[in-house]
């Protein structure tokens, strides 16, 4: 990661000027694959502390860290983890199986 930041700083003087003035940039690492994507989406919705609490409860739900398992969870389980009813419309755009193609992004059936 440090090598990538060094390369970017060599290409962008504005970016290079940040670290000397503000200190080392914090690295926020996420798990790879679907769990990391789900955690990033959760974190974008709310504060970091609230997102961390929800993420901790969400990852404890059996199957939640795979697309198939997440789709099997009912709304009560997701709300129990901290995902509000307000975010329910977003769930309609979660991955669904597409016949003969595998997993893809497509709207859920009405």
Which SSEs are present, and which pair or pack?
Blueprint: H1 2-11, H2 13-22, H3 33-45, H4 48-60, H5 67-72, H6 75-81, H7 88-91, E1 96-98, E2 102-104
Antiparallel strand pairs: 1-2
Helix pairs in contact: 1-2, 3-4
Structure, described:
This protein is mainly alpha-helical and 110 residues long. It folds into two domains: 1-30, no CATH class; 33-104, Endonuclease III, domain 1 (Orthogonal Bundle). Helices cover 57% and strands 5% of the residues. It has seven helices and two strands. The protein has helices at 2-11, 13-22, 33-45, 48-60, 67-72, 75-81, 88-91, and strands at 96-98, 102-104. The chain has a two-stranded antiparallel sheet. Strand 1 and strand 2 (102-104) form a beta hairpin. It is elongated, with a radius of gyration of 18 Å.
Number of strands: 2
In CATH, what is the homologous superfamily of the largest domain?
Hypothetical protein, domain 2
> What is CATH's topology name of the largest domain?
Endonuclease III, domain 1
In which range does the helix fraction lie? 55-70%
Which residues sit in consecutive blocks of at least 5 with pLDDT less than 50?
none
Number of domains: 2
Gyration radius, rounded? 18 Å
Strand order of the largest sheet: 1-2
Order of helices and strands: HHHHHHHEE
Largest sheet: 2 strands, antiparallel
N/C terminus separation: 43 Å
């Amino acid at each position: 990661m440090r090598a990538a930041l060094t390369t970017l700083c060599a290409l962008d003087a504005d970016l290079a000027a940040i670290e000397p003035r503000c200190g080392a940039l914090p690295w926020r690492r996420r798990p790879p694959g679907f769990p990391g994507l789900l955690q990033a989406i959760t974190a974008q919705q709310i504060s970091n502390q609230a997102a961390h609490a929800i993420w901790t409860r969400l990852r404890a739900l059996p199957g939640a860290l795979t697309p198939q398992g997440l789709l099997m969870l009912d709304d009560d389980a997701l709300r129990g983890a901290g995902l509000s009813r307000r975010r329910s419309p977003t769930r309609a755009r979660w991955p669904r199986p597409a016949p003969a193609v595998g997993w893809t992004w497509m709207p859920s059936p009405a």
